[in-house]
Design a protein that fits this description.
Arp2/3 complex 21 kDa subunit ARPC3, elongated
């Protein structure tokens, strides 16, 4: 229960930061997609199931506040979290290289899916422009931000796991 409440608070704080403060540090008109970074980080730390759940709720929050239709970003977030969680096994958690690489690749795939949807609904076929002016800058920005966000979520996750471990020892659960 504590984990759910903590993740909910993290997602709400992220939403507030992404819609206010991060707008002022935009580079070339692009802000980092911290919701995607949170989804990827939690998927790496906790696995596919929790990654998909975090992706679903982060996407629903984005849909409600920024999206045109409910469910679009939720589906993208859920799929991103599930697929990123597949890299959870055999992953050394203190290594920052994996979150950076995963953020780089996932941003490309995520934003390409957004572009493909735009083609379906608006007929805009200028992918090279979209790639150079939005996707590549966001890939670089997300990769840099992934270090900070992953470190914060790593600390939060470690603290929650320690409390859960202490609680299990208290009640004699192995």
């Amino acid at each position: 229960m504590r984990r759910c409440i903590t993740l909910f608070v993290v997602l709400i704080c992220n939403l507030a930061l992404q819609s206010t403060l991060l707008q002022h540090i935009a580079v070339m008109g692009v802000v980092p997609n911290t919701a995607l970074i949170i989804i990827l980080s939690m998927a790496l730390l906790r696995g596919s199931t929790e990654g998909a759940a975090v992706g679903l709720f982060a996407g629903l929050l984005q849909d409600v506040l920024f999206g045109g239709a409910i469910g679009y970003y939720a589906l993208l977030g859920m799929v991103s979290g599930y697929l990123a969680g597949k890299f959870n096994k055999g992953f050394y958690r203190e290594n920052y290289f994996m979150p950076m690489v995963l953020s780089f690749i996932a941003t490309f795939l995520y934003e390409s899916c957004v572009f493909l949807t735009l083609i379906l609904f608006s007929g805009n076929l200028d992918y090279p422009y979209f790639l150079t002016h939005l996707i590549l800058p966001e890939m670089a920005y997300n990769t840099v931000f992934s270090i900070l966000v992953y470190r914060i979520l790593f600390s939060v996750n470690s603290a929650i796991e320690e409390r859960e471990k202490a609680k299990r020892r208290l009640f004699g659960i192995k």
